[in-house]
Amino acid sequence: MNDHRLPLAVFDLDGTLADGSHRQRFLERRPRDWDAFFAAAPADPPLAEGVALALRRARDSEVGCLTGRPERCRADTVAWLAAHGLPEGRLRTRADRDRRPARLTELELLKKPARTRGVRVLVDDDLLVCEAAERAGLTVVRAQWAASSPAMKDAQECRGRT
């Protein structure tokens, strides 16, 4: 349940809570198959380290999720979070047509809650998002428990897709 009196602990999804490595093959081919990439997301296994941290943070914070996934993936993403026992909290997604780099979209999605509620911590695997958040004065935990791929980095920072 959401407690709007508590500060927020915001978790990125892909590479932080969810292991999307099985979907990378859709980004490594030309042309990239974005529909198949996102359609396969419900089969992502959870990343134990990220899930455990989210559950610990839920003791003193409202846990929310932030993702570069487009809004059209909301229902699948909410179902995935529930299926893996993650705390119910606000999910922030990018607009379906937003193709800006993750470091821009994710920080923009955090602006309002950072002003009105306070963000206790942002947990993210994307180095550029982490650096931008730190420059904005946020406390950051760098999620380094999942393998990253060149295809995913390109999707996040050059293609503005996740």
Count of individual domains: 1
Per CATH, the architecture is: 3-Layer(aba) Sandwich
- One letter per element, helices H and strands E, the order comes to EHHHEHEHEHEH
**Helix content, binned percent:** 25-40%
How big is the Rg? 15 Å
Number of strands: 5
Low-confidence stretches: none
* Helix/strand class: alpha/beta
CATH topology: Rossmann fold
Assembly category: single chain
Number of helices: 7
In CATH's first tier, which class applies? Alpha Beta
CATH superfamily: HAD superfamily/HAD-like
Beta content comes to 15-25%
Give the termini distance in whole angstroms. 27 Å
The largest sheet, given as strand count, sense and whether it forms a barrel, is: 5 strands, parallel
Q: How would you sum up the global shape?
A: globular
Determine the mean pLDDT. Answer: 88
> What's the arrangement of strands in the largest beta sheet?
3-2-1-4-5
InterPro entries: HAD-like_sf, HAD_PNKP, HAD_sf
Organism: Streptomyces cremeus
Protein name: Polynucleotide kinase PNKP phosphatase domain-containing protein
Domain Polynucleotide kinase PNKP phosphatase: 10-143
